Amino acid sequence: MKKFIILFVFTLLLFGCSNEEEFNKFSKFNVAGEKTKIFDPQTGLDISRGEKSPVIDLDITNGATVTYPDNRPTIFLFVAHWCPYCMEEIPEVIQWIDQADLINKDVNVVLVVTHIDSEKNNYPPDQWLFNENWQFPVIYDDKKNSLSDYFGITYFPSWVFTESDGTIALTHAGRLGIDELSKLIN
């Protein structure tokens, strides 16, 4: 009987004291096109520049989809909610989007949250982004990190900038401050 009580208490602790409930807001999407690689800081090469970006069809509701990139320049920012550099980057990116007036310039800014882990900081990621006042499109990568894999993401944060025709203009791995972002867009 004593073993049963110990096992019961252990089971309660195991399941009752979990970090958070399972994150269930993974986005539904399809990704197509050629896989790409992000800028590699080790080699200094941006081998994807000039190639077509993978295309993401994001299911938004009731079978309606949004496609990224569309016929506008698109900036993909790949982050992990637990990454300290990403935590620093998000408030600066929000400020930069506002200062550069990107929305009125018809530029897509799409945040891709990937490598979601309930055991790490800022979980759940949707609450983290709410707290940061992120008000732009967000795609939550699936449990397999399919978008991260498709775009060749190996560093956080990572950036993919596309032209209006979907051609990759630039990729970058690592933080970009407001000054660097402003120089890139101009």
Give the structure's gist in a few sentences:
The protein has 186 residues and is an alpha/beta fold. It contains five helices and eight strands, in the order H-E-E-E-E-H-E-H-E-H-E-E-H. A hairpin with a 2-residue loop joins strand 2 and strand 3.
List keywords for this structure.
186 residues; alpha/beta; Glutaredoxin; 3-stranded antiparallel sheet; 5 helices; 28% helix
Show the helix and strand layout.
Elements lengths: L1 H15 L11 E5 L22 E7 L2 E5 L5 E6 L4 H17 L7 E6 L11 H8 L5 E3 L5 H5 L7 E5 L5 E6 L4 H8 L1
Parallel strand pairs: 4-5, 5-6
Antiparallel strand pairs: 1-2, 2-3, 4-7, 7-8
Give your account of this protein's structure.
The protein has 186 residues and is an alpha/beta fold. It has one domain: 3-Layer(aba) Sandwich (Glutaredoxin). Helices cover 28% and strands 23% of the residues. It has a five-stranded mixed β-sheet with strand order 6-5-4-7-8, with no helix packed on it. The longest helix is centred in the middle third of the chain and has 17 residues, at 84-100.
